[in-house]
Write a structure and sequence with these properties.
The complex is a heterodimer of chains A (622) and B (233). By secondary structure, chain A is α/β, with parallel strands linked by helices. Chain A has 20 helices and 19 strands. Chain A has helices spanning 8-11, 47-50, 54-64, 79-88, 117-127, 172-184, 190-197, 279-282, 291-305, 323-334, 350-359, 376-381, 388-400, 419-437, 473-488, 503-513, 520-528, 542-552, 556-559, 581-592, and strands spanning 37-43, 69-75, 106-110, 142-146, 162-164, 203-204, 209-213, 219-224, 233-234, 262-265, 267-268, 287-288, 309-313, 340-342, 367-372, 405-412, 449-456, 496-500, 575-576. The chains are: A alpha/beta (622), B alpha+beta (233).
C-alpha cells in the first residue's frame, strides 16, 4: 500500500485531508528510483485552485511521457497544515510519491498571479529549501518559474534559479538533456549548470545579471555578468498547436476542484488587442488547434475521466474560426450522455444564444458581457471593440430568448477616465434593464437582474498601458462611490446590483506586477510577518504589507503611482516577447488619442509577432 | 433493474469524504460505460444511492451503493468493468441484482459492525479493560450518556443501541468489536460509545484505527448483511 507523508494523527486534525494524499484517477505512477530527473511541479495555491490549472496538466503529461522524468505535483498546504508542518518540521512533499520536495532535481513553480508570491516563499520554506537563491547548494533542487508573471520575474528573481520565458512545450527537452548530460558525466555543479542553461532559448538565469540604478531609483542598466550570457531573452512559442502534447488522460481529483470538468484548449492568443490585457499581448500570435484534433481529444478526455462537463478554454472563443463546427460536434457527442458544455468568453449574438439555449438551462444561467468601460469614448481608449449596440442588441435577443440575468464587468481607474465615464457604467446597465422591461409583461419572467462588477485597473508589463500610473486606494474607492451613487439614481435601480473589488489588494498587485529586484525583500518581510494566501481576502492583510514595505523602503509612490517616462528602462525590458516596445508605445499614443486599432484578422498592425512565423499573422499566406 | 454494489475502502482512501466519494463513483461509472439510468430533467443525474456515509478516517470492508441499470449486465462483467475504474484503496466486492420491491440500501440499514484497534499501552491491560467493559455494558441495565446536538444537550440510554460489545487481544493490540444501531431511526457512532466507555474509566479514548466491517438490516429478528440480499446474474 502507498505510504503517506503525513501521519494519521495530522491528517485527522486538518481540513480536507484528501488534498494531500494524491492517488487520484489518472495519477502517473512510476518507480522514482528509475527516473533520472525528478520534477516537482507546483502551483502555489490551495489544491482545488491548482488542480484546475490546464498548463500544469499539459506539462505533467509532456514530462511524464519521458521515461527519464518523473513529474509530480505540489500545492500550498492550507494554513492549518502549514502551522503543523512548521511546528513539527515536516518537509513539504509531492503528492505522487509522497517524497520530500527537497530530494527532487527540480522544483517548478507556476506564476499565475502576483498575489501568490508569498506562497512561493511558503513552498520553499516548508520544503526546507533555502528561500534565497544565493544560499542554495548543489544538493538543493533547481527552482524554476514560468507562466504569465514570469514576464516580469524581477520582484521574485532572487528566489529563483531559473525562469522559463514562454510556452513550456518548447525548451524543456533541451533543459533536461543538459541536466542529464552534466549529471551522467559527473560534471554537474550548480553554477556551471546555470551558466550553460542560460544559453538555452527562453531560459533566464537572474543571478547572471547585474542591475544598476539611477539616483532617482529608476534602472540605469541591466547587463549579463558574462559575455556568453544573452542580454535579451526571447519568449518561446509553440507555433503548431496541433503538435503540442495534450493531456488525453487528465487527473480527476477527489476533492472538488474549482474547475471540476474537462478543459479543451481551442486556441492560444487573441486577435483583439485590448490595451489593458496582458494575455492579449504576451500570447501573440493567435494560433488555433484544428477542429479534427479537438474533436478527437474531447472525446478521449471525456472517456478517460468520466467528467460530466467540458469547457472550452481560450481568450475570446468566438474568434475561433471553426467554432460552429466544433460546438455542433460537441452538442451531438454530449447529448443524451448527461454531459454539459460550458462556454466561457463567447460574444453574445444569435449563434451563441442558440448554442447556449441548447446546452444550458436558460432560466438559471446568466449572460456575461465585459464592456470593461462604461462609455464608448473610454472603450475606444482601451481598444475594446464592443459597442453599445452590440451590448443592447445582444441583451435584447437574450431577453427575448428567456434569459433574465446579466452580469457586466468593468474596470475603474483606466487611463484618461473621467467622472462621466464612471457614471456611464450604471447608465448602460440601466439601459439594458430597460430593454428587458420593453418586453410585454406576459412574455417575461418577473424582474431582471443586472449585476455590475468593477475591478480596479492594474497596469501590466508588456501592455500599451505599462507606463500608466495607478491611484491610491482612497481614489479607487471614491470612483466606486460615484458608480454606486449613480446606480442608485437609475430608474431601474431595483434591478441593478453593484459590487466592487478591494482597493488595497489592487494597489499591491500593481506594485508586484511592475516591481524590480529590490521588491523581493518586501515580499520576504511580508512572509516573515506571516503573510500567505494573499489572493484570499480572508488572509490578505494590508497593515502587515504596509509595515513590510515601510521596513524595506519599498514605496507605492515609486512603483505604483508614478507615471513612467517613455525612455525609462523598465525592469522587464530584457525580455523579448515578440511584440515590440515600439508597437506598445504606438498603442499607448493611440489610446490617448482615442484611436481604435483593428483586430489582427482585419488588418495587421505590425506588432512584431509575425516574426514567430505562424499563427494569424500568416493565415492564408502559405 | 436495481443493482447493489458492495465495496471496500481502505488505505489513503479513508481520507476521501462521503460527498467526494459519491462524485468519484459517478465518474467511475461513466468511465465504465455501465448502462446506468439517469433522472429526467434538464440536468440528468445518475440514479445512485449509498447505504450510509462513512466517516473520514474510517476504513470499511462493507460499503453499499444501489444503482439502477437500463439493461442487464452479467454480475461478473459489471464487477470487472467497475473494478477497472477503481483507484488503489477501493475494491468492488459484489455486483448483485436486487429482487423487485427490495428496500433501498439507505432505508434498510439498521445496524453497523465496527472493529476498533489501539495499542494496549495507550490504555489499560486488555484483561482489565474486558472486566471494566463487563461492568459498563454486560451487567448494566442502562448506560446514560450525554449527547450534544444543535438543540442542546440531552441524556440518552446507550444500552439498547449497543448490540454487541467485545474486547479482545491481537498481539500487543486491543481489538474492540462493536455492533451498533445505525440508519435513520437510531444512529450511534462508534467514537461516541468509545468516549462514553473511557470517560466512565476516567480517561480519554485512545488514538485508534476504526474499520466498519459491514452494514446490516433486520430480518426475522436477526441481523442480515446488506450484501446477502439479491443475487448474481
Amino acid at each position: 500500500m502507498r505510504k503517506l507523508a503525513l501521519s494519521d494523527e495530522i491528517l485527522m486534525r486538518i481540513d480536507k485531508p484528501a488534498r494531500y494524499i494524491g492517488n487520484e484517477w489518472n495519477m502517473v505512477k512510476k518507480d522514482p528510483s528509475k527516473a533520472a530527473i525528478r520534477f516537482a511541479m507546483c502551483f502555489p495555491d490551495v489544491y482545488e485552485i491548482g488542480m484546475s490549472h490546464l498548463g500544469i496538466q499539459i506539462l505533467y503529461e509532456m514530462f511524464n511521457r519521458r521515461d527519464d522524468v518523473y513529474c509530480e505535483r505540489v500545492y500550498s498546504p492550507w494554513p492549518d497544515l502549514h502551522a503543523l508542518m512548521k511546528e513539527k518540521h515536516i518537509p513539504l512533499f509531492a503528492l505522487e510519491s509522497q517524497d520530500a520536495v527537497k530530494e527532487f532535481d527540480f522544483l517548478g513553480i507556476t506564476l499565475q498571479y502576483e498575489m501568490c508570491y508569498t506562497n512561493i516563499l511558503q513552498v520553499l520554506d516548508l520544503s526546507q529549501i533555502p528561500i534565497w537563491q544565493k544560499d542554495r547548494g548543489s544538493s538543493d533542487p533547481l527552482v524554476i518559474g514560468g507562466g504569465p508573471c514570469a514576464y516580469n520575474p524581477e520582484p521574485i528573481a532572487d528566489f529563483f534559479d531559473l525562469f522559463y520565458i514562454g510556452e513550456g512545450e518548447v525548451s524543456y527537452p533541451a533543459l533536461f538533456t543538459l541536466y542529464r548530460t552534466m549529471k551522467d558525466s559527473r560534471t554537474y555543479d550548480r553554477a556551471a549548470f546555470l551558466r550553460e542553461a542560460s544559453k538555452i532559448p527562453g531560459i533566464y538565469v537572474p543571478s547572471l545579471y547585474d542591475v544598476a540604478y539611477h539616483n532617482d531609483g529608476t534602472i540605469r542598466s541591466m547587463r549579463p555578468k558574462y559575455e556568453d550570457v544573452p542580454a535579451v531573452i526571447r519568449r518561446q512559442v509553440l507555433i503548431s498547436m496541433d503538435k503540442g502534447p495534450y493531456p488525453a488522460r487528465p487527473l480527476v481529483p477527489f476533492v472538488q476542484a474549482t474547475q471540476d470538468r474537462v478543459v479543451l484548449e481551442i486556441q492560444r492568443g487573441c486577435i483583439r488587442g485590448c490595451r489593458f490585457c496582458q494575455a492579449g499581448m504576451i500570447y501573440r500570435p493567435t494560433r488555433e488547434k484544428s477542429p479534427e484534433l479537438l474533436k478527437k481529444t474531447a472525446a478521449q478526455m471525456l472517456r478517460s475521466t468520466g467528467q460530466d462537463e467540458i469547457s472550452l478554454s481560450s481568450l475570446s472563443s468566438s474568434d475561433y474560426s471553426s467554432l460552429k463546427e466544433l460546438l455542433t460536434f460537441l452538442i451531438e457527442e454530449c447529448r443524451g450522455k448527461g454531459v454539459n458544455i460550458s462556454l466561457p468568453s463567447l460574444r453574445i449574438d444569435a449563434f451563441s444564444l442558440d448554442v447556449m439555449g441548447k446546452v444550458q438551462d436558460v432560466r438559471k444561467s446568466s449572460l456575461t458581457f465585459a464592456p470593461e468601460a462604461g462609455s464608448q469614448r473610454l472603450r475606444d481608449v482601451i481598444n475594446k471593440g464592443l459597442t453599445e449596440e452590440d451590448i443592447l442588441g445582444g441583451a435584447g435577443m437574450a431577453f427575448a430568448g428567456g434569459w433574465n440575468k446579466v452580469k457586466l464587468y468593468f474596470m475603474l481607474g483606466l487611463p484618461t477616465e473621467t467622472e462621466e465615464d464612471m457614471r456611464a457604467i450604471p447608465i448602460l446597465a440601466n439601459e439594458i434593464a430597460a430593454k428587458y422591461y420593453d418586453i410585454p409583461k406576459d412574455r417575461r419572467q418577473g424582474r431582471c437582474q443586472i449585476t455590475i462588477s468593477t475591478s480596479f485597473f492594474v497596469p501590466k508589463p508588456f501592455t500599451p498601458f505599462q507606463w500608466a500610473p495607478m491611484y491610491a486606494p482612497q481614489e479607487y474607492l471614491r470612483r466606486a462611490a460615484i458608480v454606486n451613487e449613480t446606480t442608485q439614481q437609475q430608474l431601474n435601480r431595483k434591478s441593478l446590483r453593484y459590487h466592487w473589488h478591494e482597493a488595497d489588494i489592487t494597489v499591491l498587485e500593481g506594485l508586484l506586477a511592475r516591481g524590480d529586484r529590490r521588491v523581493s525583500k518586501a515580499i520576504f518581510r511580508a512572509y516573515e510577518k506571516g503573510q500567505i494566501f494573499d489572493a484570499w481576502s480572508d488572509f490578505f492583510d494590508m497593515d502587515r504589507w504596509a509595515e513590510a514595505l515601510k521596513e524595506t523602503g519599498i514605496s507605492l509612490d515609486f512603483y505604483a503611482y508614478r507615471q513612467r517616462s517613455a525612455d525609462e528602462i523598465l525592469p522587464w525590458d530584457f525580455i523579448d516577447t515578440g511584440v515590440s516596445r515600439t508597437f506598445l508605445r504606438r498603442e499607448w499614443e493611440r489610446a490617448r488619442a482615442g484611436e481604435v486599432t483593428p483586430n489582427c484578422r482585419k488588418q495587421c498592425s505590425g506588432c512584431g509577432a509575425a516574426s514567430f512565423g505562424g499563427g494569424v499573422c500568416h493565415e492564408g499566406k502559405d | 433493474m436495481k443493482v447493489r454494489i458492495k465495496f471496500a475502502k481502505y488505505g489513503a482512501m479513508k481520507y476521501v469524504g462521503h460527498l467526494d466519494l459519491m462524485r468519484y463513483f459517478q465518474k467511475a461509472i461513466r468511465r465504465s460505460d455501465l448502462p446506468i439510468r439517469y433522472s429526467e430533467g434538464f440536468n440528468p443525474h445518475q440514479i445512485m444511492s449509498f447505504a450510509a456515509p462513512l466517516g473520514v478516517g474510517m476504513t470499511s470492508g462493507g460499503e453499499y451503493m444501489d444503482i439502477e441499470l437500463t439493461e442487464d449486465v452479467p454480475s461478473a462483467d459489471g464487477l470487472r468493468r467497475l473494478q477497472e475504474q477503481m483507484v488503489e484503496g477501493v475494491e468492488i466486492l459484489q455486483f448483485r441484482y436486487l429482487p423487485d420491491g427490495a428496500k433501498n440500501a439507505m432505508a434498510s440499514v439498521t445496524a453497523a459492525k465496527y472493529e476498533i484497534r489501539w495499542n494496549e499501552r495507550d490504555t489499560l491491560p486488555t484483561e482489565q479493560l474486558r472486566r471494566e467493559k463487563e461492568a459498563f455494558y454486560d451487567n448494566a441495565a442502562a448506560i446514560p450518556a450525554v449527547k450534544t446536538t444543535k438543540k442542546g444537550e440531552r441524556t440518552i440510554d446507550l444500552r439498547p443501541l449497543i448490540r454487541e460489545f467485545l474486547i479482545g487481544q491481537e498481539g500487543d493490540g486491543v481489538v474492540c468489536r462493536l455492533t451498533l444501531s445505525a440508519g435513520s431511526a437510531d444512529n450511534i457512532k462508534p467514537q461516541f460509545v468509545l468516549d462514553a466507555f473511557f470517560s466512565h474509566l476516567g480517561m480519554d479514548a485512545p488514538a485508534c484505527g476504526m474499520k466498519r466491517v459491514d452494514l446490516f438490516t433486520e430480518k426475522d429478528a436477526r441481523l442480515l448483511s446488506l450484501g446477502e440480499i439479491g443475487n448474481d446474474r
